[in-house]
From TrEMBL:
GO molecular-function terms, A-Z: histone H3K4 trimethyltransferase activity
Residues forming coiled coils: none
Gene: Smyd3
SET domain boundaries: 1-69
Designated name of the protein: [histone H3]-lysine(4) N-trimethyltransferase
Any one GO BP annotation for this protein: methylation
Length: 257
């Protein structure tokens, strides 16, 4: 049991190129890093290889920090998860100021609570029929909450992400782009500066724009993704190479036109 607890407190969630969880691993030296909800470093994976990358200028003697949890949650939810899993309370500036909590829970409370419950019920589907059912649920809630929930509400944002994923898996590219485009401003708000999640989201939307022959828009989106990803992932990362490839294809299509 003590070994299990040590693993629970010190393991890292391994993610794939699109920042989706695929497993956990133990990286002893990285376990020495402390938490901040507004960290100066991020963890990215290339397969099972872990890299620690700084996302802003770090002063001599300044502690390196990472976020142990998803920072999109409101302050109270972050504190609950940190206390439950890691047995401490965070006192970083983000938690002290409770910055952006009002935006995260904007809109009608009963509406976002219904969306929150729906998002929490979603499990990764294994068939197109399951994806169709999830998309129908997302469409129904997004439609019924029009004007009641802004896209900056974090549960509305998660619902948009879910709808986008469903459309991609169902090869409904135009509709996927519609939902994906709506997520960009909330991502900019909640992941300012250099954040791998925002870079990946920009890449996904850029690819969808490219699929719809929206080459100028796609190029701008991919450039924005590149400027973030060169910091968060580095130029040698496979995801960066994929980004450069589609960016070059987009530039070539624009020259032809």
């Amino acid at each position: 049991f003590p070994l299990f607890l040590q693993v629970t407190c010190n393991c890292f969630t391994i993610s794939n190129g699109e920042m989706q969880d695929v497993g956990v691993g133990l990286y002893p030296s990285m376990s020495l890093l402390n938490h901040s909800c507004d960290p100066n470093c991020v963890i990215v994976f290339e397969g099972y290889q872990l890299s620690l990358r700084s996302v802003r200028e770090i002063q001599i003697g300044e502690e390196l920090t990472i976020s142990y949890i998803e920072s999109l949650m409101p302050t109270s939810e972050r504190q609950k998860q940190l206390l439950r899993q890691y047995c401490f309370e965070c006192d970083c500036l983000l938690c002290q100021d409770q910055e952006k909590d009002s935006e995260k829970l904007a809109g009608e409370e009963h509406a976002w609570k219904e969306v929150k419950d729906a998002v929490n019920e979603v499990r990764y589907p294994k068939s197109k029929e399951e994806w169709k059912r999830i998309l129908a649920r997302c469409q129904n809630l997004l439609s019924s909450n029009m004007g009641r929930l802004p896209d900056t509400n974090i549960y509305q944002l998660k619902m948009l992400d879910c709808a986008m994923d469903a459309c991609i898996n169902l090869e409904s590219w135009e509709e996927a782009l519609y939902y994906g485009s709506r997520t960009l401003e909330p991502y900019r708000l909640y992941y300012p500066g250099f954040h791998p999640l925002r870079a990946v989201q920009l890449l996904r939307v850029g690819k969808l724009q490219y699929s719809q022959d929206m080459f100028p828009q796609a190029l701008e989106t991919l450039k924005e993704a590149y400027n973030i990803m060169k910091v968060t992932h580095g130029t040698d990362h496979s995801l960066m190479k994929a980004l450069m490839e589609i960016k070059e294809e987009c530039e070539a299509m624009m020259r032809i036109q």
